[in-house]
Every structure is written in structure tokens, then in C-alpha cells.
Design a protein that fits this description.
With 78 residues, this protein is of the alpha+beta class. The protein contains 1 helix and 5 strands. Strands 1-2-3-4-5 form a 5-stranded antiparallel beta sheet, with no helix packed on it. β4 (42-47) and β5 (51-55) form a beta hairpin. The model has no long low-confidence stretch (mean pLDDT 82). InterPro entries: Aliphatic_acid_kin_short-chain, Aliphatic_acid_kinase_CS, ATPase_NBD.
Length: 78
């Protein structure tokens, strides 16, 4: 039986994550958000076949949630 595990490492201004297919331990995707809350925040998301990187302007509550939900929805097919 296979299942997925998400590992998260959160710091004061950064967040790293990795989604693994278990029990094999295959990496499905990984990402990094740096300088959270700052004007020059950076987001990087990688899968086996794609890499997305960019900067995100500071945003408030619902807009940030919507942006994160959109990226997460794109990963749900993996």
C-alpha cells in the first residue's frame, strides 16, 4: 500500500517542504519559501519534471491563502 508524507521545516522567515511517496521514499515535489513577510520573498517549487521559481509581493490574508491554494492544487495530481 502506498501513501504520501509531507515533511515541513518552518523557520522565522522561511518554510521548506517535501512530499514523499511511501514506502519507497520517492520525492514527488519539494519547495522553499524564503524571506516570508518581506518585499523580496522568493518561492521555489520543484517536481521531477518541472521547476517554478519567482518572487511574490507581500500579500494579506485571503490573497496569500488563494495564492498558496492555487500552487497546492497544481501539486495534488502528483
Amino acid at each position: 500500500m502506498s501513501y504520501k508524507i509531507m515533511a515541513i521545516n518552518a523557520g522565522s522567515s522561511s518554510l521548506k517542504f517535501q512530499l514523499l511517496e511511501m514506502p519507497q521514499g520517492d520525492m514527488l515535489c519539494q519547495g522553499l519559501i524564503e524571506r516570508i513577510g518581506m518585499a523580496d520573498a522568493q518561492v521555489t517549487i520543484k517536481t521531477h519534471s518541472q521547476k517554478w521559481a519567482g518572487n511574490r509581493p507581500r500579500c494579506r490574508s485571503s490573497r496569500c491563502g488563494n495564492a498558496a491554494s492555487g500552487k497546492a492544487a497544481g501539486l495534488s495530481n502528483h
